[in-house]
């Protein structure tokens, strides 16, 4: 599959320490989301853009939360990777919407596809 040069492809989702013997579920989840985003981008055409855009925004929101949870891993020792994935799937709309409301061109927004559209 052709790899699109989307911002999520340059984001680091590797964890330094594994929380599970089953590998790195949070990193695997991020790779799965990146793959879905790349596949969606390759299907965009003039007729389906507005159908695809919300799906890309959903994946972007989830990937930003994955990055946040990986970078904040020291603060979240009580949560397993599986619990974090479930939390992301449940809360991504609220968390990303609050980020949009409080957005003030912070450096961390550079990873987001949504915040790169101008």
Topology:
Elements: H1 25-43, H2 49-71, H3 81-101
Question: What does the model show?
Answer:
- With 118 residues, this protein is mainly alpha-helical.
- The chain has one domain (23-111).
- Helices cover 53% and strands 0% of the residues.
- The chain is built from three helices and no strands.
- It has helices at residues 25-43, 49-71, 81-101.
- Helix 1 (25-43) runs antiparallel to helix 2 (49-71) and helix 2 (49-71) packs across helix 3 (81-101).
- The longest helix is centred in the middle third of the chain and has 23 residues, at 49-71.
- It is elongated and about 45 Å long.
- The mean pLDDT is 74.
Largest sheet: none
In round numbers, the mean pLDDT is 74
Strand content: under 5%
Along the chain, the helix and strand elements come as HHH
The general outline is: elongated
Number of helices: 3
Number of domains: 1
Report the C-alpha radius of gyration, rounded.
15 Å
Give the uncertain stretches in residue-range form: none
Strand pairing plus helix content: what structural class? Answer: mainly alpha
Separation, N- and C-terminal Cα atoms: 28 Å
Helix content: 40-55%
């Amino acid at each position: 599959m052709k790899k699109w040069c989307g911002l999520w492809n340059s984001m680091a989702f590797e964890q330094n320490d594994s929380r599970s013997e089953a590998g790195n579920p949070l990193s695997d989840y991020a790779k799965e989301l990146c793959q879905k985003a790349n596949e969606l981008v390759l299907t965009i055409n003039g007729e389906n853009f507005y159908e695809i855009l919300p799906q890309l925004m959903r994946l972007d929101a989830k990937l930003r939360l994955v990055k946040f949870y990986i970078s904040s891993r020291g603060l979240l020792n009580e949560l397993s990777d599986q619990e974090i994935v479930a939390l992301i799937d449940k809360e991504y709309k609220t968390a990303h919407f609050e980020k949009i409301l409080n957005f003030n061109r912070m450096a961390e927004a550079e990873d987001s596809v949504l915040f790169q559209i101008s």
